[in-house]
Design the sequence.
């Protein structure tokens, strides 16, 4: 007997119509790891759809597990009296912390290539899974400025030697033919404006000390000099004919105001794509590593401070996009709080900065409280934002693993830890990769929440896709973290939020191999009896009236 998805596909075919239905059932595929992936094609993909919470006195729950549940929905009633469970999680609404900005992933060249390798119907299905109201609610998209390791070639937008005026600045075919059209489609599917985030990997080689896009190298000259100003104007161009003494800052700013000459930001704005934020550059520490294998631009904290104060900040402020946020670091939290102290303690640099961007790759080497927590307590006016993470990057655990549940747990653990230490959002790396974990010109193959099989015109939603969904689907922009107390020591990890409509979301991770019974107490409403199965992620949500 044909399955429901198969029957639905036959109906669509017979009726000669285009349809992209969704259902709650995962079409599970096992590739030999400890859990499953969910297969999607042009006519069917599992989804919980748009979420509407039940009336006061009831709650909804969504469960994903190593055993195979994927956002499995359920609901129940609050109880007036305690269930008697040994563990009680009490929601402390009087404790208020940071507000959520959003969750998302990166539209790299590789991601765009993989999405476009599918048929139009399957492409649409994949984009819907991320960005539409029936999808998982991504609102943030990180975009590399020119090439990165997940490109098929090395390039920048200004490869003409000595072009300090950036007269030959031009977007690449990868932007015009792939990323821009896909971002426009994603925006059309999203019920709210997407927050675009720009990060550059390397300056043009002729601006660098090593004369190459890769390897150990930084900008020539000093902050305030022509190389540093040119690099700032790569983001925001200022029409000044540089003399041998460089660009006088006042003249540069006046020219920028009069011409509104914006390079990268303006080129994307022509396509109705505007950026919420830009970072000061991807992983500045990498540019100090001898024989580093792919694109990098080295900055010390002091150089980044002075570049923001003298070049990037003033140029951005005088451009057509003065409200674009600037995020410093864009590197591992191992560098905190040192990096933040150097940059944010400077009044001139600090006035142009909005937040600190962190990657997850070295998180196990430094406690969250002594890095993220320390920065928040020292500089509470600046927010913390996660800008890159992926599984399969380590030499000991490399590449794609279709159905690996441990990687979903690693995502959920890191997100919860970040959220509980004042981070306002978390961004995954490539939105989609192929089955080898690429393409990558430098063969830096890693994993992704979505893996594409172009030959079969299908894509697989990894367990990590659902780990992301437990946060991105339910923590709407503006949701505020609130306090949670546990009645006893527990192996569960959790975080609670009050959403803009006053509803409450509690996310619980159980990485242990045993089931945990517990109850949730929301004062004034009642008790929720709950179970966290072994190796599971559980989201509970309810209205408060």
Sequence:
């Amino acid at each position: 007997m044909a399955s429901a998805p198969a029957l639905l596909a036959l109906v669509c075919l017979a009726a000669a119509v285009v349809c992209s239905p969704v259902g709650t059932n995962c079409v599970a595929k096992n590739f030999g790891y400890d859990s499953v992936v969910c297969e999607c094609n042009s006519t069917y993909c599992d989804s919980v759809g748009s979420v509407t919470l039940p009336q006061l006195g009831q709650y909804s729950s969504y469960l994903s597990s190593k055993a195979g549940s994927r956002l499995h929905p359920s609901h129940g009633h609050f109880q007036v009296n305690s269930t008697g469970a040994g563990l009680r999680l009490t929601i402390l609404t009087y404790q208020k912390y940071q507000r959520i900005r959003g969750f998302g992933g990166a539209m790299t060249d590789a991601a765009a290539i993989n999405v476009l390798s599918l048929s139009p119907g399957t492409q649409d299905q994949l984009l819907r899974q991320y960005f539409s109201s029936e999808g998982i609610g991504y609102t943030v998209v990180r975009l590399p400025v020119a090439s990165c390791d997940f490109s098929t070639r090395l390039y920048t937008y200004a490869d003409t030697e000595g072009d300090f005026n950036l007269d030959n600045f031009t977007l690449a075919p990868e932007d015009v033919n792939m990323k821009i059209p896909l971002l426009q489609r994603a925006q059309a599917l999203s019920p709210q404006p997407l927050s675009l985030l720009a990060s550059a990997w390397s300056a043009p080689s002729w601006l660098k000390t090593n004369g190459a896009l890769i390897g150990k190298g930084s900008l020539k000259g000093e902050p305030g000099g022509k190389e540093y100003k040119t690099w700032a104007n790569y983001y925001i161009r200022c029409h000044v004919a540089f003399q041998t003494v460089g660009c006088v800052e006042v003249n540069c700013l006046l020219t920028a105001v009069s011409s509104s000459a914006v390079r990268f930001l303006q080129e994307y704005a022509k396509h109705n794509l505007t950026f919420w934020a830009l970072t000061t550059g991807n992983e500045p520490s990498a540019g100090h590593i001898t024989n580093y294998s792919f694109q990098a631009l080295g900055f010390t904290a002091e150089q980044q401070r002075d570049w923001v104060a003298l070049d990037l900040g003033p140029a951005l402020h005088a451009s057509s996009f003065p409200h674009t946020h600037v995020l410093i670091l864009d590197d591992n939290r191992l560098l905190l709080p040192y990096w933040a102290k150097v940059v944010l303690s400077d009044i001139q640099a600090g006035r142009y900065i909005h937040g600190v961007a962190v990657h997850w790759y070295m998180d196990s080497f430094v406690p969250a409280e002594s890095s993220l927590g320390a920065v928040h307590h020292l500089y509470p006016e600046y927010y913390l934002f996660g800008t890159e993470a992926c599984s399969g990057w380590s030499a000991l655990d490399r590449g794609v693993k279709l159905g690996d549940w441990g990687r979903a747990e690693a995502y959920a653990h890191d997100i919860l830890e970040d959220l509980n230490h004042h981070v306002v959002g978390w961004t995954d790396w490539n939105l989609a990769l192929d089955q080898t974990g690429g393409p990558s010109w430098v063969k830096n193959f890693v994993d992704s929440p979505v893996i594409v099989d172009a030959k079969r015109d299908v894509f697989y939603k990894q367990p990590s896709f659902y780990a992301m969904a437990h946060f991105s689907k339910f923590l709407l922009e503006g949701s505020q973290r609130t306090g949670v107390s546990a009645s006893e020591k527990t192996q569960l990890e959790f975080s609670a939020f009050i959403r803009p409509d006053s509803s409450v979301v509690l996310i619980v991770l159980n990485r242990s191999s045993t089931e945990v019974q517990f109850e949730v107490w929301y004062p004034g409403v009642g008790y929720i009896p709950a179970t966290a199965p072994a190796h599971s992620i559980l989201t509970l949500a309810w209205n408060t009236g």
In short: The longest strand covers residues 88-99. The mean pLDDT is 91. The two ends are 46 Å apart (CA to CA).
